[in-house]
Write a sequence for this structure.
């Protein structure tokens, strides 16, 4: 497996134009059969997916990922975003880089947590770029549905106090594996502060958007979620599975698993389910 790092720049017109995003790729020693565009979750970074990527590379996939704006080694302010579109701008650049390096190969979108929300909303206007999609613990619905009053307050704070910390995630909800939690807390590239008001409000708007327009998605989709996920409600995956128009779709809820199902003790089973399903989708395309 070859590991490479680089950078991408957000284009003019982006709300974070000119910002550099940290690029990371994992590729097989021989020609890959397809590309996985990996979209990581809130507060973390792409470097946490080396085990995930090693599995995918062993199955013939190349993996491309960036640290989102405000995350990991990328430019930006942790816990804040000028607008949710900045995350989509990053996916635009990542997609262009993958297509430049491997023109003509099928591309699969894989998003985890907030990355699942970014990916799902990205599909609303870019579905034709992908052969299939896998969402892991996607943040389609909040663990606790916010009240109308809270949404109103969130909008006020987003406008006037955009960087004010309003949400603190519990790292113990990440995994049942204590080492994963310890490593998460010790990782200098993981943000352990509060989510700012602007990012929280932008996420709520994106959740509403995908809930309202999910039926527009018809891409083959695999939804994976831990039953005991306390950070992103499994109801969100169930809702999306029911609402999308895809004729090829599958939902797997893993009993007892927490939020980061790719980092749970059962991760090899989860990863095998994912690449097994992807292999089936590519075989259906004659690949």
């Amino acid at each position: 497996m070859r590991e490479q790092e680089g950078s991408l720049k957000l284009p003019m017109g982006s709300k974070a134009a000119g910002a550099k995003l940290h690029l990371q790729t994992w590729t097989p020693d021989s020609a890959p059969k397809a590309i996985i565009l990996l979209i990581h979750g809130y507060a973390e970074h792409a470097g946490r997916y080396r085990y995930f990527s090693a599995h995918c590379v062993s199955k013939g996939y190349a993996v491309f990922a960036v640290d989102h704006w405000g995350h990991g080694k990328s430019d930006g302010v942790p816990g804040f975003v000028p607008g949710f579109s900045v995350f989509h701008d990053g996916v635009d650049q990542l997609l262009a880089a993958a297509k430049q390096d491997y023109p003509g190969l099928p591309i699969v979108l894989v998003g985890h947590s907030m990355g699942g929300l970014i990916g799902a909303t990205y599909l609303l206007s870019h579905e034709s770029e992908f052969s299939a999609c896998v969402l892991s613990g996607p943040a389609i619905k909040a663990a606790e549905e916010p009240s109308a009053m809270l949404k109103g307050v969130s909008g006020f704070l987003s406008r006037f106090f955009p960087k004010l910390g309003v949400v603190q995630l519990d790292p113990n909800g990440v995994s049942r594996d204590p080492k994963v939690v310890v490593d998460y807390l010790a990782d200098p590239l993981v943000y352990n502060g509060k989510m700012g008001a602007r990012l929280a409000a932008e996420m709520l708007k994106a959740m509403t958007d995908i809930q309202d327009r999910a039926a527009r998605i018809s891409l083959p989709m695999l939804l994976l979620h831990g039953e005991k996920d306390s950070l992103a409600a499994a109801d969100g995956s169930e809702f999306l599975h029911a609402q999308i128009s895809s004729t090829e779709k599958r939902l797997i809820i893993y009993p007892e698993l927490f939020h980061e199902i790719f980092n749970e003790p059962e991760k090899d089973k989860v990863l095998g389910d994912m690449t097994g399903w992807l292999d089936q989708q590519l075989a259906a395309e004659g690949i």
Remarks:
- Strands lie at 2-9, 20-27, 34-39, 61-66, 107-112, 132-136, 165-167, 195-196, 221-226, 249-254.
- The chain has one domain: 2-284.
- The first helix runs from residue 50 to 58.
- The mean pLDDT is 94.
